[in-house]
Structures are given as structure tokens and as C-alpha cells.
């Protein structure tokens, strides 16, 4: 987690055993998004397009696409419906994809988080979901999300 005087960010970097095109589809195709994150998703992968994902039942994030450079970079805003701390569109999520050998290096950043507690909570969530993304992209089955029954935050 990076901290500056005015913003907090969660950054992660991982190599995924799949092409950038495969990883890209898992980031922008609503049917593929729910293989690794959430129970329902909507995404229009064009600048200004809507992004909405019901991550857990009753826990919905929403924002809009800022940048979509297939299959290299996806940027969208992010925030929780009904939240005063992290409202829809108040933070920014960036995925940068680069070929690495037969796979893809994913550089992930979630920035503009309002407080250390929010950054820590989002870091735990991203660690969980990015691991599931890597499994799905490599052709595996990440299985049912164990958080669907355990988490209600």
C-alpha cells in the first residue's frame, strides 16, 4: 500500500499465465468478470461507459470507464453504492497489461482511497480477487467465491 499526504493507493503486480487478450476479456466481459469477482456485472468498455459490479450480495460498486486501450490498459472509477466513505466514482482502478514471455504482467493500482482503514480493506479484497483472476485467466476454475457466504461488509 502506498501512502502520500493526500491519497492512499493499493498497488499490486503479478504475472498471469495467459495472454494480455485473455486477461483483458476477463476484465471487460461481464459474463467473464463474474467468473472471478462478483455475482453480477455490467461494463461498457468505452470512455464514459458504465461500470457496475455486485461484488457480494447487496454490496455494489459503481463508476465509469475513463480509459480503455485494448488489451493494454483499463481505467475506471470505483465506489460503493450507499457508502459515504467511498461513494460511487470516488476512487480510480487501473489495470495495465504487458506481455511477459507467454504470459502477462498485470500492474494494478487502486488510488484515491480516503483513509488507511479503507485502503487496508480494499487491499484484502484485491488480494483475494486478483488471485482468482489469475486462476481464471490461466484456464482454471477459481471455484465458488468463499466470501459469498462469509462476508457482509
Task: Describe the model.
The chain has 153 residues and is an alpha+beta fold. The protein has one domain (2-142): Alpha-D-Glucose-1,6-Bisphosphate, Chain A, domain 4, CATH 3.30.530.20. The chain is built from four helices and eight strands, in the order E-E-H-H-E-E-E-E-E-E-H-H. The protein has an eight-stranded antiparallel sheet. The longest helix has 22 residues, at 116-137. The radius of gyration is 14 Å and the shape is globular. The mean pLDDT is 94.
Topology:
Elements: E1 2-3, E2 8-16, H1 20-28, H2 30-36, E3 40-43, E4 50-56, E5 59-69, E6 73-78, E7 91-100, E8 103-113, H3 116-137, H4 147-150
Antiparallel strand pairs: 1-2, 2-8, 3-4, 4-5, 5-6, 6-7, 7-8
Question: What labels would you give this structure?
Answer:
alpha+beta; Alpha-D-Glucose-1,6-Bisphosphate, Chain A, domain 4; eight-stranded antiparallel sheet; 153 residues
Biggest beta sheet attributes: 8 strands, antiparallel
H and E string: EEHHEEEEEEHH
**Can you tell me the residue ranges where pLDDT is under 50 for at least 5 consecutive residues?**
none
What's the number of helices?
4
Number of domains: 1
Average pLDDT: 94
Top-tier CATH class: Alpha Beta
How would you concisely characterize the structure shown here?
The protein is α+β, with helices and mostly antiparallel strands and 153 residues long. It contains four helices and eight strands; from the N terminus they run E-E-H-H-E-E-E-E-E-E-H-H.
